[in-house]
Amino acid sequence: MLKGRLGLEKARIPHADRHGLLWLSRGELCVVEGCLHFMRGKDSLTPGIDQIPHQAVSMILLGPGSSVTHDALRLLARHGTLLAAVGEDGVRSYTAPPLLPDRSDVARRQAELWGSPRRRISVARHMYALRLGEVLPHRDLDTLRGIEGARVKTIYRLMAQKHGIEWEGRHYDRANPNAADIANQAINHAATAVQAAAAIAVQSVAALPPLGFIHEDSGQSFVLDIADLFRDTVTLQIAFTAAKRAQQSDDTIDRLVRREAASVFRKQQVIGAMIDRIKQVLRVDEESHGAGDDRDS
């Protein structure tokens, strides 16, 4: 929206003053008498209709069993409220229409850090420090990746031992992902779920998904960066817990992983933690953009 045009930009509540995420599922998001409502259907535990304070919410996450009307999309766009279609408790991210956030500070900050080779490697080293629990002296990205890869192999083995899972190493065939053993399949599904949560977090702060600091080629590189920060504490915990349950369950490993991921996301408030971590690695709360930006992590 053009600044000052008809004074309409002042009618929007700034995202900094809004509530964060609103989760809705099993109903229809629609407009009734000019206001946004969510009509919960018969399959909901609490059928009925609720008015949604869309002007005071930054992002609505629409879960399974839900639909949205054209009028609702128009109303959300008018007030700059984001809408994403997601899986149960954020275990999948299907789409998020770009409804234009009212601030660009996070994206500009990310681009500023990404555009400088020295700052970019500093952020990457910070991310590796968060993942490995120590600041490594190396400044070469390939060396850091190699060190992290070796440690991940050890973590896989220890997690398998903890959960009583037979482990023969990490194997993944992109052409046939279901050919792997149950533990490896569980890791694949858990990684997908955590990446969905990371995508929601990145979208909610209006960061730039392609500009990753460790990952480079994917259009979701920054999403993968953030997801990897939670690999040890979230992804592998979900995967090996589900793999253990698969030994006594007739459910598919995909369904077991989704259920476990939904539970972990709720209990640990994973998406909120990811949002905080994005702000931390991009240093968006720093008052100065001077020399302090170049300090080593």
Overall description:
Belongs to the CRISPR-associated endonuclease Cas1 family. Pfam families: Cas_Cas1. It comes from Oryzisolibacter propanilivorax. The chain is of the alpha/beta class and 297 residues long. It folds into two domains: 5-95, Ribosomal Protein L15, Chain: K, domain 2; 105-294, Four Helix Bundle (Hemerythrin (Met), subunit A). 45% of the residues lie in helices and 13% in strands. The protein is built from nine helices and eight strands. It has helices spanning 70-78, 105-115, 117-132, 141-163, 182-204, 221-228, 231-246, 253-268, 270-282; strands at residues 19-24, 27-32, 35-40, 48-51, 57-62, 67-68, 82-86, 93-95. Strands 1-5-7-8 form a four-stranded mixed beta sheet. A four-stranded mixed beta sheet has the order 4-3-2-6. A hairpin with a 6-residue loop joins β7 and β8. It is flat and about 60 Å long. The model is unreliable at 1-10 and 287-297 (pLDDT under 50).
